[in-house]
Amino acid sequence: MYFSSLLAILALSTTISAIPHPLLPRAANDTHKFLTNKTRPYSVDGANLPDIPFDIGESYSGLIPIGDKAGGQELFFWFVPSENEAADDEIVIWLNGGPGCSSLMGFLQENGPISWQSGQLAPIRNVYSWTNLTNVIWVEQPAGTAFSSAHGDGDNQDELGVAQQFLGFWKNFIDTFDMKGRKISITGESYAGNYVPYIAEAMLNTTGKNASDYYNVTGILIYDPILGDRTLGDNAPVIEFVNANKNLFPFEEDVFEQLNEYADQCGFTDLMEQTNTFPPKGPIKVPEILQLNATSTTLSSFGNDSCYLQYFVQAYISQLNPCFNIYYVGQPCQYPSDIIGDPYHTNAPGSPAGYFTRPDVQKAIHAPTAKNGSAFEWDICSPRTQVFAGGIDRSPPSANNGGPLGKVIERTNNVIVGHGTLDMVLMVNGSLMALQNLTWNGAQGFSKPLENDMVVPYYPQGVVAQSGNGTLGKWTEDRGLIFCTVELSGHEVPGYQPGVALRHLEKLLGRIDSLDDDAGFSTQDTYFAGGFDYVPLTEDQIDHQLVRRAQMLP
């Protein structure tokens, strides 16, 4: 039985190596669909990006104003059109979080045409690039973020201001690239759990005879998002998270007992029981012992200091694992170097300078220059004080009842929330708790637990596999909202499991009917469309694979 299973694995491996890559490539000599006199100043030479050894094709980047007056705030973007014919009437917006973190992180390490991951010596084509499916734009926002701080800090008081700022930019972008009437999907991760719903609602609420030319929102997709009260979401699920991942938190038994006792005393055990009841029995009740004081997304606190359990857990585990990464708890020592300047990796010996800090890169993508003409001081994440006045976002959480998330679900019936199971900065059950307390389309929370398989099609990836395939999570769906866990993923799902993210995008865009569909990606050729049907290998091929693997063993 074991040997037959081994042969099946070897057969799959050889098949994967032998079949040409099935994803739609970008042609190096493609015709530029969006090149006009208006867009020419933004055109990027995709064949000559510094240190990128391949042509990414047509793309555009630079600063576009958020209003009509010259000299005001501008937002930096990078737009990559798709060659997929199904994308002709649509566009996807991607926003990283922070607040104040650059969406160029998403471009270079998550869902853009280039994949240059932490610890990776050189960039490669991202075979899971969202541009294989559709037109995608990455935007550094709000004003005050990275290159979008060229005209000073942002002065937003809340997400309503952020949304109006973005809508001004978006209208100018649409006019510049002549893209009126496109179906718009807004996507993002982390703090974009606030950005995306607020921006989507602002677009949907815009009225007038030309509103649909600019703001035709059809759905949203957000990963590991801030949805509810941050303090509660950070701490209530953490002991349950530790108990579920004991192999990564090898505490002494007395430490486990103490942490679980704290969870009981703070009412977190009961909160998690309420969260995992389907359907919910009523509004989720916050224990009085917490003395929770919540007035906005960033202004909340416990009156009981002993209930900040995320801090206690991080302090304990950091003694056992000095390389502990709260964004991906499966990361071992040592930190890999990082080309983007990720703060969890930049202290690694020999780490290169951040890619977007380089003058040659900044020139290639039409980035702003400093006032003295030198290279712009780009940072992966700008301080909160550059984004919000006083560093405080005064908005209610997006998943509050009556807030923007519920309204966007009801207006589009096309919302997906995905969450990496190895993320401890924002945990699965923190997001689920917020959604279980939310009422939309006439009912509260989900009626069924997460029982459906999240299936990523098997297909050839060549020598360097970039994502897992097969069943990589569970999901549930109710009344226009999907909630999906993603196994083996940390905070940035499109970076850790890009195959899952591409599948989510296919669902959002209507390319597939269900996330448990094991048929091939819509960008695959017919050879692998059957998902699990492989060409059998000859005995000679099997023998060759066995010999190769034996030679690789120590």
UniProtKB/TrEMBL annotation:
Its EC number is 3.4.16.-. InterPro entries: AB_hydrolase_fold, Peptidase_S10, Ser_caboxypep_ser_AS. It holds the Pfam family Peptidase_S10. One of its GO terms (biological process) is proteolysis. The keyword Cytoplasm does not apply. Gene3D superfamilies: alpha/beta hydrolase. PANTHER family: CARBOXYPEPTIDASE (PTHR11802:SF479), SERINE PROTEASE FAMILY S10 SERINE CARBOXYPEPTIDASE (PTHR11802). This is Carboxypeptidase.
